[in-house]
């Protein structure tokens, strides 16, 4: 089974490549550590790819779309049809992710893994596991089998992108209502109170925020997800696009390809992937800190430092696409800057040693 085969292939970071990259980074013509997180990113990418001089080539954003029965609880400011109506704008490059992916030189793969309405949209990959997740406030989002099937959609799409040469992938989501299951996932896996982690998503008002808290509370009470079992949490309080995105993470980890996490929804998918296989965290990079308050807690749970903090709260992979520039910049620094020895500049560390 693709799911189990993928899990079996996930290993750790290449320590040797990281040591070598760190050594070169420390010897480049700059005070040690002066490029901050840029240095850590380059060293991590070296460890992921298993090459002390990593380079970023082709890049791809994978946007998974799915719907959520929980919107019947009145948890979103937008109607469900917006989910499928956004898809042509993704394909035509005129949605937020269309513009930012183009700017980052990335291609976009748009996948219908479980949109409620069955529509034909040219360019969208139809990999529908079912027509929307069921209402988590009343029962499970899907069966365990459906969850595995949706994860496998993500694995397949990511493997295809990687086979076609992608060296850096970004996670993107589209699904009206999907901050609600993402909140439930965070509360379930992190043990946080619902009040603490529920945010405003598409900027809902106080009344809707109250309904959202209630829906998340019901979802957790009725379904009682097992926090020790990532697939159980996913099937009970997750969503189809969240499952697909978790699958993308698993595939990237199995093929040693860095994967950029975007905002709150892709963060929830990353939490699921890490609950299924903790080693997946080694292969993730956090692009930005979302305006959604629970996102900070997600990144802490994943041990990831965000590159950008711009108050973005759109999703679609927009923050991840922006961060592609930074990942490439980090690798270029490691490859294109010279060392003290190469440049004939007095090494600050050696000079210090000589002077005692
Ligand atoms: C026009 C529009 C475009 C979007 N693109 C992403 N989202 C984002 O907002 C939705 C989640 O927020 P909530 O849980 O409050 O519904 C998701 O579709 C997410 O991708 C959008 C939302 C809207 C309205
Ligand atoms: O953080 C995100 O990605 C996000 C937040 C609110 C709504 N949609 C996406």
Automatic annotation (TrEMBL):
Pathway: Nucleoside biosynthesis; alpha-ribazole biosynthesis; alpha-ribazole from 5,6-dimethylbenzimidazole: step 1/2
SUPFAM superfamilies on file: Nicotinate mononucleotide:5,6-dimethylbenzimidazole phosphoribosyltransferase (CobT) (SSF52733)
Keywords assigned by UniProt, alphabetized: Cobalamin biosynthesis, Glycosyltransferase, Transferase
Pfam families assigned to the protein according to its UniProt record, in alphabetical order: DBI_PRT
Catalysed conversion reaction: 5,6-dimethylbenzimidazole + nicotinate beta-D-ribonucleotide = alpha-ribazole 5'-phosphate + nicotinate + H(+)
Active site, UniProt feature: 316 (proton acceptor)
Superkingdom of origin: Bacteria
Listed EC numbers: 2.4.2.21
Presence of keyword Transferase: yes
Entry keyword Lipoprotein: no
Swiss-Prot/TrEMBL GO biological process terms: cobalamin biosynthetic process
Any GO molecular function: nicotinate-nucleotide-dimethylbenzimidazole phosphoribosyltransferase activity
Residues in coiled coil: none
Family listed: Belongs to the CobT family.
Protein name, as recorded: Nicotinate-nucleotide--dimethylbenzimidazole phosphoribosyltransferase
Name of the coding gene: cobT
């Amino acid at each position: 089974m693709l799911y189990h085969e993928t899990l079996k292939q996930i290993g750790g970071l290449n320590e040797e490549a990281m040591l070598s990259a760190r050594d070169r980074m420390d010897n480049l013509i700059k005070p040690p550590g002066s490029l901050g997180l840029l240095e850590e990113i380059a060293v991590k990418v070296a460890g992921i790819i298993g090459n002390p001089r990593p380079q970023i080539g082709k890049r791809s954003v994978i946007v998974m779309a799915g719907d959520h029965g929980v919107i019947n609880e009145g948890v979103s400011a937008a109607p469900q049809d917006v989910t499928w109506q956004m898809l042509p704008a993704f394909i035509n490059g005129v949605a937020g992710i269309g513009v930012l992916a183009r700017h980052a030189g990335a291609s976009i793969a748009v996948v219908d893994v479980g949109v409620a309405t069955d529509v034909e949209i040219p360019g969208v990959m139809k990999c529908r596991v079912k027509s929307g997740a069921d209402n988590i406030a009343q029962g499970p989002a899907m069966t365990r089998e459906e969850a595995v099937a949706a994860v496998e959609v993500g694995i397949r799409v990511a493997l295809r992108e990687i086979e076609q040469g992608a060296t850096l992938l970004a996670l993107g989501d589209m699904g009206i209502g999907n901050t609600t299951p993402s909140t439930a996932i965070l509360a379930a896996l992190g043990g946080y109170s619902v009040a603490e982690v529920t945010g405003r998503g598409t900027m809902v008002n106080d009344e809707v925020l109250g309904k959202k808290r209630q829906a998340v509370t019901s979802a957790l009470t009725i379904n009682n997800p097992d926090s020790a079992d990532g697939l159980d949490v996913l099937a009970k309080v997750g969503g189809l696009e969240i499952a697909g995105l978790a699958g993308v993470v698993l595939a990237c980890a199995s093929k040693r390809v860095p994967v950029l996490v975007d905002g709150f929804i892709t963060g929830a998918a990353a939490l699921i992937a890490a609950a299924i296989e903790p080693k997946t965290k080694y292969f993730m990079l956090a692009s930005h800190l979302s305006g959604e308050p629970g996102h900070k807690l997600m990144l802490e749970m994943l041990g990831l430092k965000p590159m950008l903090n711009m108050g973005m709260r759109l999703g679609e992979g927009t923050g991840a696409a922006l961060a592609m520039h930074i990942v490439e910049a980090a690798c270029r620094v490691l490859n294109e800057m010279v060392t003290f020895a190469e440049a004939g500049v007095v090494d600050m560390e050696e000079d210090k040693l000589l002077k005692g």
